[in-house]
Design goal:
It comes from Spathaspora passalidarum (strain NRRL Y-27907 / 11-Y1). With about 425 residues, the chain is an alpha/beta fold. The chain contains 14 helices and 23 strands.
Length: about 425
Amino acid sequence: MKWFWKKKYNGRLPLLPMNFSVEIFYEIFSHLNQFDILQVILINKQFYELGIRELYKCLLVDNGTDRYIISQHMRTSFTTKYTIIDGIQLFKKKVFKRKRMKFVQLVIFRRDTCLDAIYQDMIRKYPWVEIRIMDPDFMSDKGPFYTNQKLKLQAKTLTRLKIEPNLFIKVEDDNYSIIEYVINTTPTPVLLSSIPKLKRLETLCILDPQSNHLITDLQSSQLSDICLKTLILKVSSIQLSSLGEIFNLTTITKLKLEFTKNVAAPYEELKTLTSNLPRLNSISINWRFTNAVIIMDYLVGKNIRHISVKTNEEIDYSYLKYYPTNFMKHQQLISLHLWGNPPTPPPPVKTRSRLISWFSKKETPCDDLHTSKINAIRGFIDGGFPNLNQIILNGWFFMITGKREVKLEHWPNSHMSCICCF
């Protein structure tokens, strides 16, 4: 097999299920930096155990068989994201002493091969590297094993920085490589003080359902000079009117707001906020008590192409089926996601454009697809949404591939799918 790798290959490598030995797999992975695309259609358990599951998160795993599926092409440079380590000596020989650590962002050790001296040496020399300690079977992850030291960020190739509860990294100097900053713990003033030093930051994600002082801490962090494109907030609650005082809203194109407390939906604040977001084209709302139709009305005229609304209350499909004027003004929509508790199904109505709660029924689509379901989707296609190609209503997923074809899938039962033509 060595002759194959002598020639640099920059195309696509399809890998089908084959009973390769572990040594051959390591030979393959040692040369993956030569490929731009790896297309794995169907892989066996051995390939999965070697760590491919940690490289990408888009795996569809069928526990009923010994086969694992990756459903899409994945374009990236392997050497900048991942390395597989099976034994500390292999790591020292292949990576650590060859000065290749500048490409590595994640290292996984088996628990029975990790040496404390190597671990301490790594966190001192390579603070940008994420270190995980795995069980010897390499399949059951007991959780990450991080350092809690305050480390100076030195990597020039790192583009994403995620702060976990037991991982603390402070950015001390100006950084021009990181474009995504995720805080998955309490956003302390020290953590927030790193944001102004991320000069090319485009995505800020704060995931802290318990924080009660977020606005005050953000206001003291001087973030108005950061040109964000994506802002994601998962918090207990927040005053939306204060976001304009903290961030430069003129550059934000994607906004995601999730409240974890039972608070009243701030409709008017949302309307004011979106009015100050001239480039907004994608919005996701996850509030426990809200009305999806009211939000749709408030978003009219914003030129938003992707709308997602999730609520604990029932979504009034009887309102949607008549296509009110404001709802129909969203003609620029490409994807529409409405998630809520299903209402009681109304009596059958012989009308082409009705939308009822059959979206939440557990049916076999290929056997029980009634004419009403097809007509409902036709109502979306023919009723003023020329660009719409994706609809999600209470777990029913509709992928519109053309004027004559609709693909329906029910989540999480993705095997329940059917192509319908009309």
